[in-house]
User: What shape does this take?
Amino acid sequence: MAQHEVEITISKEGEVKVHIKGAKGKSCLVYSKWLSQLVGKVKNQKLTSEHYEPEIKARIDLKQNLGIDE
Amino acid sequence: MGAVLILTPVIIGSWPAITTAVAGAAAAMGLMVSQSVKETLNEGQSDAEQSVELELSDSEVLAESMATDQEIVLTKGAIELRVKRDERGRCSVCAKGTGHSEVELKKIAEEFTQKLTQCFVYDKVMRELKNKDFQVVNEEVSEDESIRIHVRRWMD
Assistant: This one.
């Protein structure tokens, strides 16, 4: 079971900031799309540092591809 | 993977959805709902009375089940705010009042449209989060008047 968390801040002016946490892979982008369709226009979007951490499977695939044991 | 999004709200809703947000914004600003149906279109405007009209550019009030000339009138002292659907289908706010300058009325109308937007987005987001089985972990209003909502759900 994975825990998905969303922090939403609606400013005094009505602008909305959304922070999606815990959703891995494409599910995060699914949340982004759902929330942007719900609220309005995307002004800015950035992936957090978690995005740039290689996933375990990708690391294993790379190691297998390069023939490196450890 | 995580993401941070900044979204600019677009207000698209039926008249009942708009009126719910109007009521919320009015309560937050200490405005009284004095009329829900426009009946005073032909009232004259006195010489000392200023008026300012603002349109929510990113808005669309769906006309279904809405009577012609329907509007909500809000009052606070000598200030009157009228919220209606204009001829282009957008939501507009008209502020008028005796003894207030155009600048003051514009400021009040802007404050109200911002609060209306915030209330509309809050209602819509909370409704959808509940529909998607999110649990509200925390909800608070900050000193800067922003609303913070923290939700979570478990996925297989």
